[in-house]
Structure formats: C-alpha cells, structure tokens
Known about the structure:
The chain is of the alpha+beta class and 139 residues long. Helix content is 24%, strand content 29%.
Amino acid sequence: MDLKCLGIFLFVFVCAANFAETKELEKVDKLHIGVKFRPESCTQKSKKGDKLSMHYTGMLTDGSKFDSSLDRGTPFDFTLGAGQVIKGWDQGLTNMCIGEKRRLKIPSDLGYGDRGSPPKIPGGATLVFDVELLDIKGK
Length: 139
C-alpha cells in the first residue's frame, strides 16, 4: 500500500471514529439544562403549580425538528409540575425568569421512553428543546 492510500485510509478511519463518538455523545443519561439567555432583572421565577406560557422548538439529536410553537405562532400554556408535559419539562423549566431562554437535553426516560411518540419521535430518543418563558400566570 503506498503512502497516499494509507493517508486516505487513516483519514476515513479517523472521520468514522469521530462520527461514531459524536453520535454517542448526543445521547444523554440525565437532564441537561443550558441557559442561553437570562434577563438582568428577575422578579419572579417559575415554580411548581404556576401556569407557564412558553415558546419552544423540539428537535431530535440529529437536528430534525419534530414540533414548534413558533411555527404555529401560538405559545404553549401548561401548569408546571402537574404532569401535563413530559418529566424533562417539569424538571427543566423550574426557577426560570420571564424572558429566559434555555436549551434542554432530555434523556428518553424523562421524555417519551422506549415507545417514543410515532411517527416523529422514535423510541429511546434523546430530545432537545429550545424554550423561552413568555409569562408566569401563577396558580
């Protein structure tokens, strides 16, 4: 094997190994909460029992979007901690300020589990949500 072929082989091997490692890193085994924006002033934080108004975009780890309130132009309202949403949301949206933006990476067991939510969400899927808290309406 000449050096050129060896170089190409090594390049392909390294790329394939990096791709496999990246795919594995996309799976999470616990909830990850990333704050993308936090307002300077925060007079009220979300807590269990509050009715929240949110905008969100839900994606799989490959970046494919499965749902978005932004596309509909209508915020999503629900009561935090009441089991109206997946567990990853009930846990990941506490202590948020109005105007705050977060990225949630939600493991399957805090999302839709092994069954998924066909046809867009396969079983065992890690979910990624970009969320923005628009309003807290209280209990």
